[in-house]
Amino acid sequence: MNRTFFQISCCGALVGTALQVCPSGVSARPAQKSARPNILYIMSDDHGSQTISSYGGPLAQVFRTPNIDRLAEEGMRLDHCFATNSISVPSRASIMTGCYSQCNGVYTLRDTLNSALPNMAKELQQAGYQTAIIGKWHQGTEPSGFDYYNVLPGQGRYGNPVLIEKGNLNGPDFAHAKGTVHPGHSTDVIADEALRWLKSTDRESPFFLMCHFKAPHRTWISAPRFKHLLEDVTIPEPANLYDDYSDGREHLDALTIFLEDMNKADLKVDIPKGLSRDELRKWAYQLYLKEYLRCIAGVDENVGRLLDYLDENGLTENTIVIYTSDQGFFLGEHGLFDKRLMYEESIKMPFLIRYPGVIEAGTTNDDLILNIDFAPTLLDFAGLRTPGYMQGRSFVQNLQGDTPASWRKSFYYRYWMHNDFATHVPGHYGIRTDRYKLIFNYGKGLGMAGASKEDTTPCWEFYDLAEDPMEMRNLYDDPRYAKTIESLKKEMLRLKKQYHDEDSNYPEMREVVERYW
Predict the structure, then answer these.
(1) Range of the domain at 68
(2) Do 118 and 146 have their domain in common?
(3) SS3 of 414, please?
(4) Confidence (pLDDT) at 220
(5) DSSP state for residue 360 in the 8-state scheme
(6) Cα dist. 492→414, 434, 479 in Å?
(7) Does 382 share its domain with 447?
(8) Any idea what the CATH number is for the domain that residue 460 is in?
(9) Same-domain status, 354 and 458
(10) Residue 326 and residue 431 in one domain
(11) Do 342 and 430 have their domain in common?
């Protein structure tokens, strides 16, 4: 991919020291509280909302998340919150900058966030907030905009994690820091460090703390105290665990993120021989979900510790608390694990928020909210306008039950990490409305070294989510939807232009679109 697009783009790009910015989102009205609120932003990694009991669903029958659920009971649950690029590094960059990948330069896992770029931590810091990030940073460069950081290098590890602390790098600079080993499980350690920083804050100034857990990222290793959790429980299976990818979805067969692709490191036992595909899925699913849920049990327990600290120190009433994940995750739906694809389980993010006196307790919201909206919203709560470089929009009014008439009715998604060697997921982009979803997959060979035009097999997918919420029938060739699809393509092109995603920087993609559009 031609990275020079980032350098000449009208958004989020640095040329020398001059920042060029995107058109601004709409500035929202400020929140209705006089004092600037503290902000506690809690984010896990790869946590699908299917396992949060306040979201309901079959797994709630056997597994509960009482502490995360507190935020739904005492605040609001968002039911249609989405990642604009469902992979960890790009999603985190979008959350920090309020911009799509093509405007912040972070397209794939191999990219790094330019530390010179503006971000919401810098905006809050300049406005007098005490700022800190603790846990998983995963952006490749030193965290910027934070008075304090203590972060995992890269993915980090579950047991006895190494943390790189600002001012105590144990090395010449951040890129070469050795960090410090912290005994214990990473989820507990990250919460310990978050609480330690909270205790050190000046009560005269508001704080902004990002507490990022590594869990439940693959490969799953829970704290020893959860070793026997769910041991004798049969986990309910998703209805489409044994999906055969008929009905126009045969291209999925090329992926390598099926349950039968899991390895011994994932499942902690030897893989049995001689099982059929469905038998292997059934067997692997139980092991996978139990390991995954045990990691989440540790996250929920530590969310409870953080909430208890706020209660015990009189901070609850003036602190916004958010719980979310960097994207969703497949938990056996379509027989899959991992994320990336533009299917609901992958792109839908859990998002629960509590702000007493401003957000009504026990409420839900169905508006289309994106991860690029997080930064404008938190700035809005802090009494700050949305900066011109941010492409997202504050949803403070939505949280107060007053959705603006101009709120988006559709959104644009793009996954850039084409044909990753480990997953074989093709690059793709698409559009989702409240009812429909249209996806364009590049094709299996496009963009790979040595690939010829004959290697490409682009394809379209179209789903009517009202009739087919599990996305089991690709209706792209159904004549009943021809006019709807034509309209969606026009809207997709409009959004591509609005968000400065032009295929001119990717000649192979432009040619394929012209051939298959």
Answers:
(1) 4-224+296-364+371-405
(2) yes
(3) strand
(4) 97
(5) -
(6) 11, 14, 20
(7) no
(8) 3.30.1120.10
(9) no
(10) no
(11) no
Burial of 450 (0-12, 13-18, 19+ CB in 10 A): exposed
* pTM recorded for the entire structure: 0.92
Q: What is the pLDDT of residue 19?
A: 37
Interatomic CA distance for residues 458 and 441, integer angstroms: 5
Chunked into runs of 10 residues, the chain (517 residues) has average pLDDT values of 35 35 42 77 98 97 98 98 97 98 94 96 98 97 98 97 97 95 98 98 96 98 98 97 92 90 94 96 98 98 98 98 98 97 98 98 98 98 97 98 98 89 87 97 54 61 98 97 97 94 63 66
Q: Left (φ > 0), alpha (ψ -120 to 50) or beta: where does 113 sit?
A: beta
The confidence score (pLDDT) of residue 10 equals 40
Q: What are phi and psi of 415, to 5 degrees?
A: -110, 120
pLDDT at 189: 98
Q: What is the pLDDT of residue 512?
A: 64
Q: Are residues 447 and 334 in the same domain?
A: no
CB 389 within 8 A of CB 19: yes
The angle at the Cα of 35, spanning 31 to 38, to the nearest 5 degrees, equals 85
Residue type at position 347: I
Q: How many domains does the chain have?
A: 2
Instruction: Give the position of tokens 């929009």.
Output: 393
pLDDT computed for residue 504 by the predictor: 53
Strands 351-354 and 76-78: antiparallel
Tokens 């994320």 sit on residue: 339
CATH assignment of the domain containing 124: 3.40.720.10
Dist. CA 315–CA 308, nearest whole Å:
10
Q: What is the pLDDT of residue 458?
A: 85
- The string of DSSP codes covering 98-109 is SS-HHHHT--ST
Same domain, 396 and 357: yes
State the DSSP H helix or E strand holding residue 396, giving kind and residue range, or none if neither.
Answer: helix 396-399
For residue 344, what are its two tokens?
A: 């609901």
